[in-house]
């Protein structure tokens, strides 16, 4: 057979095929334009002030657009946050002044969980009903009830904490059940029993948690009573939220009054107080001034509670109720606080002392039991009432002072920081160490700034105390808090001093081993304020500080957080040797943590961080850049993605050199680009992923060609060909095993396209590389029942056709391709033709075998693709070839698998082509192609 | 054939004063029409006196209770014998609340030996085969506002070992000094008893401070009279070893029904007292008694 490719005029074809160009107007709203959102987040009550809302994510030169978008608030919630503030600003502002409790008041629900988690015990608890001494008549009634609900009043001993909590929850449930089944007396009885438990201070460490559990029940009860009375007033229409006494009907009032009378006759003080407080809200049904009169009375009644701990928690509950039902009644809130101050001396009294002795609880521990309640009382009474301050200035007690600092707004404390320091110095330290006080002060200063002029004095005064703390644990807890203040207000010099001090304290006896969490927090705080890495690394003690992280996991985590910040904020490539050395060190630490057990994900994320560091630039000093890459390769040899990135960097470096030299390499630059090629060539084999290797060989080969490094290009391509047989039949993609065939085919096609411009090596035969590829394809063990091999052959034909043209479709500037080398030598052309014949022969053999195997669909598809190739690239004036084409057409249509639409369009295309000069022969061929109508 | 009978007063709190009229409805509900032999409604106010076993012999007390004193009694026929239609039937009624003859209407009071109670009772008579139905309902009478001088005259008190009576060995007592005051011993029943108590000093820890409300009932009879004091309620105002020198509020709501304005008649007397009780940790019980005069304004 005589196969010949047709002659192509690529320029003319391109012109005829080109679409008409119309100018496009770029509108502002391009869907792919980076979204830039400006930060207009509503200022919420972020008292803890730790999350700086860095959400102005205009993706300018962002390292990773995805992570950048996810950083901070996402656009949707930002939008949601934006709406109220922009749309209702005047409304909001007005409301804020009116409302007695704003969003800046931290609600009880936030404290609840904290208390439960903090105050726990392993000791055994008991629920002791005590002797109920209600009036005789009631008692007999209650006893009757007892018979009904066996067990609810039995004394329970030896409960674990969980059992206790569980039991309380059961009581809560039975309260609801009793209520639902209209057993109001039983419900009241349960509530009384529960509040009675609060007078029991055995297992005192658990008391705050017990308080939380039991007040939950009281809340339930209060709500039930309120809802019940409210529902009695729904006729004719439900009460408005702002109802007055006149809207309430007599029956509801009577019921409500009954509750209050019933509660007033509870014998014991504590249940009477708690239960009345719990239904205080119901006073609204009876009279206007009820709450106003009751709150001060209940406040005064608390004085009757002898145990200071029980009393302080009762006060906390009353404040809670007060804040809920009448937040504007500041007086009784304040009264609670002042009474608390007045009775504080009881804590050092004889009864408390003997109680602690029998329970074997130390004074400092006992005092911490007070803090949730005192904090809460102060928070309530000082809320928008800074005048409480004058009273608190008299406080000489450390515990109270601590609560004071926690209760007032940080801004308030910050402006008086010097006063507080004075008070801390003066106060009596018994049982409550000063470093805790400084810790609380530091926490305030971390979110609010004191006056500029006082800052340095404050830091000096505070640090003077902190540095004297003996126990490393106490020291680091306190120091960690103050780092935030230091970072916020001072320069690297002061921070460096602080770091030095921490190192000094934490190094002896390897104390740092127990304080990794705090030390990490120190690093986080520094990173949050110092984004300039040249400043950061010029702190002398920063790297020594990092050296304290000696546990592998923690160490890597710290490195990670540093690198995160580095990638986010070091936007400009740097060549500062200080930064490079330090970051290199950090990255090396991360790299060295990788071992055989490291998870893939872990490796991936570490690689991403290290690659982030690779964005260094030495400007025009390409050689130094290359040597940096050499060093990096040596350092990060275990992380493949890093190596891949390095190869890309070096390839880019070579191309950058070419750009700078405008394609004309000098001797020096030529040597440099060869060095780059050498770098890639020796790096690639160390990669384990076969496809990475293949693609990088190809890419590096292309780069070498572009830089006129012929022998290097040859070497790359030969290497690629030589590893083709190693490609496994299946590879793992995202954890799943998949056939590698499609990847391989893609690669080979890509590879073949490159081969067009590769000039033949003078020492090897014609089309040495093409033959090489085809031989490899021939020998490769393809999957059974696969046409892959033949499809490669079909794809190789267009390449051979392109090679036989006088001018090639594309060439590399300043490099001669085969077109110039052979200059259309007939021998060369016949060599190509011979190869084509061989290929077509192979394909036809395969088609025949497919016919035998009854795989007619595959046969049809394959035949049609070969037909298309012949039509596009073959010279159909040749009769044999045109006959072959016709046969292939028929074969592809024989079994009706061909898509008619494509067939029709193919015919139309041929008719269109036939109109052009030299192509008229096509019309004859078209005549012979029959369209098969589907039956 | 079920039928229910109910008396509903117009006032939710069921409180009436002399001269007013007690108004309400009788509610009859039955599934189908029902035959009856008449419905009547009666109103009655009674003072029940009982002699305590302490004053007279046990058996005597049991049998020999004094005859009840009737304060008011009237009866009306609501419906003549006939038929009630099925469903809910409401029959309104109204009684003028006026005492018999020259007697006064005392305030409702539930005590141990003396009970003053006002009831409405509705009877529905039926044929021989079906049982008669009856329903009674208590209503509460408050006496007319009294003109009392309620001048704020606080009653101060001081309790030390020396002020105590009724003790065996004064020298065994621990030392203590407790003072305080009641805002007024003439109290309005509808308002709480108030005052303050301050533990200035005490050698022994305080266990509890309580307010004990006492009723003193006196019944006159042929043999003389019987006077009995019993506890109505006991309210704890302090628990545990309270802070020294800090005033603790005295506050007690007078329970309804169980208290009434202090009453003195020819046949019986109802009076009230309050005890301030201080329990020390060694179970010493210190009591200070205050007679009260209750009134209604």
UniProtKB/TrEMBL annotation, chain A:
Ranges annotated as biased composition (Low complexity): 50-59
GO annotations of cellular component type: endosome
Biological processes annotated in GO: endocytic recycling; protein transport
Intracellular or extracellular location(s): Endosome
Cited InterPro entries: VPS35L
Keywords annotated in UniProt: Endosome, Protein transport, Transport
Domain of life: Eukaryota
Disordered: annotated span: 23-67
Similarity annotation: Belongs to the VPS35L family.
Protein's recorded name: VPS35 endosomal protein-sorting factor-like
TrEMBL record, chain B:
GO biological process, alphabetically ordered: intracellular protein transport; nervous system development
Cell compartment(s), UniProt: Endosome
Main location: other
Taxonomy, superkingdom: Eukaryota
Presence of keyword Methyltransferase: no
GO cellular component: endosome
Keyword Nucleus in record: no
Entries under Pfam families matching the protein: Vps26
Keywords, ordered alphabetically: Endosome
Homology family: Belongs to the VPS26 family.
Free-text function comment from the UniProt entry: Component of the commander complex that is essential for endosomal recycling of transmembrane cargos; the commander complex is composed of the CCC subcomplex and the retriever subcomplex. Component of the retriever complex, which is a heterotrimeric complex related to retromer cargo-selective complex (CSC) and essential for retromer-independent retrieval and recycling of numerous cargos such as integrin alpha-5/beta-1 (ITGA5:ITGB1). The recruitment of the retriever complex to the endosomal membrane involves CCC and WASH complexes.
Subunit structure, as described in the record: Component of the commander complex that is essential for endosomal recycling of transmembrane cargos; the commander complex is composed of the CCC subcomplex and the retriever subcomplex. Component of the heterotrimeric retriever complex consisting of VPS26C, VPS29 and VPS35L; within the complex interacts with VPS35L. Interacts with SNX17 (via C-terminus); the interaction is direct and associates SNX17 with the retriever complex. Interacts with SNX31; the interaction is direct.
Record PANTHER family: VACUOLAR PROTEIN SORTING 26 RELATED
Name of protein: Vacuolar protein sorting-associated protein 26C
Organism: Hippocampus comes (Tiger tail seahorse)
């Amino acid at each position: 057979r005589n196969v010949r490719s047709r002659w192509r005029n690529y320029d003319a074809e391109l012109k005829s095929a080109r679409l008409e160009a119309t100018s496009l107007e770029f509108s502002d709203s391009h869907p792919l334009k980076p979204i830039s959102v400006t930060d207009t987040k509503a200022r919420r009550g972020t008292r803890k002030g730790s999350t700086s809302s860095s959400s102005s994510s205009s993706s300018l030169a962002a390292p990773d657009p995805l992570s950048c978008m996810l950083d901070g608030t996402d656009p949707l919630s930002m939008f949601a946050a934006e709406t109220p503030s922009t749309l209702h600003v005047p409304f909001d502002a007005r409301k804020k002044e009116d409302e007695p409790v704003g969003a800046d008041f931290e609600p009880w629900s936030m404290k609840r969980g904290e208390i439960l988690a903090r105050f726990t015990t392993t000791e055994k608890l008991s629920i002791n009903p005590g002797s109920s001494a209600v009036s005789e008549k009631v008692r007999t009634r209650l006893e009757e009830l007892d018979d009904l609900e066996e067990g609810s009043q039995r004394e329970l001993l030896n409960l674990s904490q969980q059992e206790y909590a569980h039991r309380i929850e059961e009581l809560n449930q039975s309260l609801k059940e009793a209520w639902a089944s209209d057993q109001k007396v039983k419900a009241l009885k349960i509530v009384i029993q529960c509040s009675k438990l609060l007078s029991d201070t055995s297992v005192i460490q658990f008391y705050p948690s017990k308080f939380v559990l039991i007040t939950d029940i009281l809340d339930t009860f209060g709500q039930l009573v309120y809802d019940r009375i409210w529902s009695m007033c729904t006729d004719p229409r439900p009460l408005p939220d702002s109802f007055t006494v006149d809207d309430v009907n007599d029956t509801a009032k009577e019921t409500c009054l009954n509750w209050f009378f019933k509660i007033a006759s509870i014998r014991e003080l504590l249940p009477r107080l708690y239960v009345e407080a719990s239904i205080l809200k119901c006073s609204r049904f009876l009279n206007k001034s009820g709450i106003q009169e009751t709150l001060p009375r209940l406040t005064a009644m608390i004085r009757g509670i002898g145990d200071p701990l029980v009393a302080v928690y009762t006060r906390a509950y009353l404040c809670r109720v007060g804040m809920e039902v009448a937040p504007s009644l500041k007086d009784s809130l304040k009264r609670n606080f002042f009474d608390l101050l007045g009775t504080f001396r009881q804590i050092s009294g004889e009864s408390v002392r003997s109680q602690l002795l029998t329970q074997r609880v130390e004074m400092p521990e006992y005092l911490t039991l007070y803090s949730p309640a005192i904090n809460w009382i102060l928070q309530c009474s000082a809320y928008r009432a800074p005048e409480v301050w004058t009273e608190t200035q008299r406080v000489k007690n450390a515990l109270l002072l601590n609560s004071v600092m926690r209760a007032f707004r940080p801004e308030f404390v910050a402006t008086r920081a010097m006063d507080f320091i004075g008070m801390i110095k003066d106060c009596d330290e018994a049982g409550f160490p000063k470093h805790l006080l400084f810790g609380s002060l530091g926490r305030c200063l971390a979110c609010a700034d004191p006056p500029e002029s006082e800052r340095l004095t404050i830091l000096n005064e505070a640090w003077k105390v902190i540095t004297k703390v003996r126990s490393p644990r106490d020291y680091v807890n306190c120091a960690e808090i103050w780092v935030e203040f230091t970072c916020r207000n001072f320069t690297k010099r002061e921070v460096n001093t602080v770091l030095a001090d921490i190192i000094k304290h934490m190094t002896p006896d390897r104390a740092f081993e127990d304080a990794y969490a705090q030390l990490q927090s120190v690093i986080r705080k520094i990173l949050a304020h110092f984004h300039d890495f040249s400043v950061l690394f010029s702190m002398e003690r920063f790297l020594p500080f990092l050296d304290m992280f000696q546990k592998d996991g923690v160490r890597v985590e710290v490195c990670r957080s540093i690198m995160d910040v580095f990638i986010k904020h070091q936007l400009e490539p740097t060549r500062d040797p200080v930064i490079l050395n330090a970051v290199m060190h950090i990255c090396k630490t991360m790299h060295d943590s990788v071992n055989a057990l490291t998870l893939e994900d872990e490796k991936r994320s570490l690689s991403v961080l290290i690659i982030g560091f690779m964005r260094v630039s030495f400007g025009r000093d390409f050689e130094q850049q290359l040597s940096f890459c050499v060093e990096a390769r040596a350092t990060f040899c275990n992380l493949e993605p890093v190596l891949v990135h390095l190869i890309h960097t070096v390839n880019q470096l070579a191309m950058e050199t070419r750009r700078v030299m405008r394609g004309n390499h000098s001797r020096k630059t030529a040597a440099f680009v060869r060095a780059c090629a050498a770098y890639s060539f020796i790096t690639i084999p160390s990669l384990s992923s076969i496809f990475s290797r293949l693609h990088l060989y190809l890419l590096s080969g292309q780069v070498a060609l572009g830089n006129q490094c012929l022998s290097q290009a040859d070497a790359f391509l030969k290497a690629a060909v030589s590893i083709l047989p190693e490609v496994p039949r299946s590879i793992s993609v995202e954890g799943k095993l998949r056939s590698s065939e499609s990847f391989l085919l893609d690669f080979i096609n890509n590879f073949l396209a490159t081969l067009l411009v590769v000039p033949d090596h003078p020492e090897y035969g014609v089309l040495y590389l093409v033959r090489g590829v085809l031989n490899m394809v021939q020998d490769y063990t393809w999957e059974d029942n696969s046409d892959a091999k033949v499809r490669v052959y079909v794809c190789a034909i267009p390449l051979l056709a392109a090679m036989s043209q006088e001018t090639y479709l594309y060439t590399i500037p300043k490099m001669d391709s085969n077109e110039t080398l052979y200059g259309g030598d007939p021998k060369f052309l016949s060599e190509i033709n011979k190869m084509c014949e061989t290929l077509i022969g192979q394909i036809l053999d395969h088609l025949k075998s497919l016919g035998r195997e009854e795989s007619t669909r595959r046969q049809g598809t394959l035949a049609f693709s070969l037909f298309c190739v012949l039509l596009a690239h073959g010279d159909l004036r040749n009769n044999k070839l045109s006959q072959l084409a016709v046969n292939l057409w028929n074969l592809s249509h024989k079994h009706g698998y061909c898509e008619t639409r494509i067939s029709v369009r193919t015919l139309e295309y041929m008719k269109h082509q036939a109109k052009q000069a030299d192509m008229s022969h096509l019309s004859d061929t078209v005549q012979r192609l029959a369209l098969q109508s589907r039956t | 054939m079920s039928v229910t009978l109910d008396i509903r007063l117009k006032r939710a709190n069921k409180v009436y004063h002399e001269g007013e009229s007690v108004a309400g409805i009788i509610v009859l509900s039955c599934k189908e029409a029902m035959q009856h032999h008449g419905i009547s409604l009666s109103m009655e106010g009674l003072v029940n006196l009982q002699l305590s076993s302490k004053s007279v012999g046990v058996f005597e007390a049991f049998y020999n209770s004094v005859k009840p004193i009737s304060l008011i009694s009237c009866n009306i026929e609501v419906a003549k014998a006939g038929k009630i239609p099925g469903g809910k039937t409401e029959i309104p009624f109204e009684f003028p609340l006026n005492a018999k003859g020259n007697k006064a209407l005392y305030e409702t009071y539930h005590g141990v030996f003396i009970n003053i109670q006002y009831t409405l009772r509705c009877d529905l008579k039926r044929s021989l085969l079906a049982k008669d139905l009856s329903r009674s309902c208590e209503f509460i009478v408050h006496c007319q506002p009294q003109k009392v001088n309620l001048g704020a005259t606080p009653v101060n008190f001081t309790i030390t070992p020396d002020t105590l009576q009724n003790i065996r060995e004064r020298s065994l007592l621990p030392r203590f000094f407790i003072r305080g005051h009641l805002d007024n011993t003439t109290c309005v029943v509808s308002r709480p008893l108030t005052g303050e108590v301050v533990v200035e000093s005490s050698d022994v820890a305080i266990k509890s401070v309580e307010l004990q409300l006492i009723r003193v009932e006196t019944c006159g009879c042929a043999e003389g009279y019987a006077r009995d004091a019993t506890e109505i309620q006991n309210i704890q105002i302090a628990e545990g070893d309270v802070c020294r020198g800090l005033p603790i509020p005295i506050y007690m709501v007078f329970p309804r029904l169980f208290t009434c304005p202090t009453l003195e008649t020819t046949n019986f007397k109802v009076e009230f007292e309050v005890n301030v009780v201080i329990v020390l940790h060694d179970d010493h019980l210190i009591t200070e008694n205050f007679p009260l005069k209750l009134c209604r304004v």
